[in-house]
Amino acid sequence: MTADVFTLHRGTAPIVVSLPHVGTIIPDSVKTALVSRAHATEDTDWHLTRLYAFAADMGASVIAATHSRYVIDLNRPPDDAPMYPGGSNTELCPTKFFTGDSLYLAGRELNAAEIERRRVVYWWPYHVALGAELDRVRAQHGYVIHWDGHSIRSRIAWLFDGVLPDLNLGTANGASCAASLRAALIAAMQSQDEYSQVADGRFKGGYTTRHYGRPNEGVHTVQMEMCQSTYMDEAPPFSYDSQRARLVRSALRAMFDAALAWKPQSSEIA
Questions:
Q1: What is the pLDDT of residue 68?
Q2: CB contact set of 192 (below 8 Å; sequence gap of 6+)
Q3: How far apart are CA 231 and CA 248, in angstroms?
Q4: Which residues of the chain have pLDDT under 50?
Q5: Domain 2-268 is classified in which CATH homologous superfamily?
Q6: CB 84 within 8 A of CB 98
Q7: How far is 43 from 75, CA to CA, in rounded Å?
Q8: Which pLDDT score is estimated for 89?
Q9: pLDDT tens for residues 121-140?
Q10: Cα 137 from chain centre
């Protein structure tokens, strides 16, 4: 089953890219319980595998989910604790669209046994593979930079007010990576004036950032949450825009260049 729930490209550089929300597969056993609208998987992180194709060319490892976040959210903790207390949250096994509407047909709602089944079948294999790849790269280089890639519509009233900045770097308020890496990535992000940007704003990093980011152990994790308007159409059929993608890819590459040029300072090495 593990070969079915993610793809993994092993690279040679000290960077691992994870893409937990790019999958669109919904097994029939799940699909029959969902409202028909869910079959279009509108809340997917569309086209990120294509957008981040340059990362593998730069030597990065890339792990990407194959199944929809409607099946299970790989960026939520296994105990389903809320990531943003006091705000709107999506669950380990989401029950709502990003609009707040119900994903499930009446009478077909999730139960504890089904959530546990999905945790075992989908969540654990992905995270076992991600953890192993981080360990492999860290052993090779002495440290690893873990880039958790995401994208989202620029306006989602249920999740946040107003319009989201184009580029949203999350470092769990500086806890998930070395301060010098955070500064280097922010400088690279701010070196362009095409896109609005923020560090540790509404999106500070989900489970992946907070769990794997252990800079004192040589694992430096950051999250990039991008507005989909920077590279695609945010309305169905969610088409990729090659011209817009080319521009934002340049901004992303600048951040990857900064990451590859970075080395932990002596005071940041365990």
A1: 98
A2: 250, 251, 254
A3: 7
A4: 1-2
A5: Zn-dependent exopeptidases (3.40.630.40)
A6: no
A7: 14
A8: 65
A9: 999 999 999 999 999 999 99
A10: 19
Q: What is the pLDDT of residue 232?
A: 98
Question: What is residue 87's predicted lDDT score, i.e. its pLDDT?
Answer: 55
Contact present, 192 and 248 (Cβ < 8 Å): no
CA distance 153 to 147: 20
Tokens, residue 248 = 């934002």
Amino acid at 205: G
Measure the CA–CA gap between 74 and 128, rounded to whole angstroms.
12
